[in-house]
Amino acid sequence: MAATASALPDGLGWETLALLCVAAFAAGWIDAVVGGGGLLQLPALLLVPGITPLQALATNKLASVFGTASSSASYYLTVRPSLRTALPMAGIALVSAFGGASFAAFLPASVFRPVIVGALLVVALITLLKPTLGAVTRLKYRGPRQLLTGLAIGVSIGFYDGLLGPGTGTFLIISLVGFLGYDFLHASAQAKIVNCATNVGALLFFIPLGAVLWPFGLVMGAANFLGALLGSRMAIARGTRFIRVLFLIVVAVLIAKLGFDIWAEAAR
């Protein structure tokens, strides 16, 4: 595959750069609490004149890795999530994200959007109909079975993050809540560690390809870092109930955004 030039696109103004920083800050905040920050950050990058979808996806990963690293550290120092599950998940998710990123240049997002919307609808219904879901940690498995379930989650969601990305943190949280039995706060803490690894895995593919726009990614990364730091601290202070409510809001927005994309694609 030919390398993609990483020079800045023409026509960039201060207004566009300011918009990117605001979007990155907000994305970092949302990602730190419930995931789904890519809903803001990726579309903002696509507004830049001359940027390609692959450059936008790659630069989004660079900015996001700063935020997920920031929130991972905040959660670990305060919540102390179980690294026995999170680290193996992160390792296999990193490899899987690299694999997903390698497909990103070949497969159109429209192939996956209907499946993702269906999955999000199921997630929303389960969360609404089970108000006690994720209220407290009640681990469903112990030992090897818990590890194997975590690894399966890491492989599947890691691949998705490398391929598309938006909603990865949301899918990680509901998987940790639904399949392993964590409460929303501890699920968010572990999801950030795994999400940081998936961002790194995707970058390991995109950087040699030359698809990362470094000036954008580093500036947006600083804004994403600050947003994630604020978001993780607020989530820790407010607890599981706050995260659950915001989780449902983000899922609803994800469904609306992806549903609109499907409708717009069909109308062309």
Task: Produce a short descriptive summary.
The chain has 268 residues and is mainly α.
Description:
- This protein is an all-alpha fold.
- It contains 10 helices and no strands.
- The protein has helices at residues 14-33, 38-46, 53-79, 83-104, 113-129, 144-163, 168-180, 184-209, 214-238, 240-267.
- The radius of gyration is 17 Å and the shape is globular.
- The relative contact order is 0.22.
Topology (elements, then pairings):
Layout: H1 14-33, H2 38-46, H3 53-79, H4 83-104, H5 113-129, H6 144-163, H7 168-180, H8 184-209, H9 214-238, H10 240-267
Helix pairs in contact: 1-2, 1-3, 1-9, 2-3, 3-8, 3-9, 4-6, 4-8, 5-10, 6-7, 6-8, 7-8
Helix-strand sequence:
HHHHHHHHHH
Q: Kindly name the structural category.
A: mainly alpha
Oligomer: single chain
Query: What distance lies between the first and last C-alpha atoms, to the nearest angstrom?
Result: 29 Å
Major sheet: none
Task: Please bin the fraction of helical residues.
Answer: over 70%
**Tally the helices: what do you get?**
10
Task: Give the beta-strand count.
Answer: 0
Rough outline? globular
Approximately how much beta-strand content do the residues carry? under 5%
Q: Ranges with pLDDT <50 over ≥5 residues? A: 1-5
Mean pLDDT: 88
> Which value, in Å, is the CA radius of gyration?
17 Å
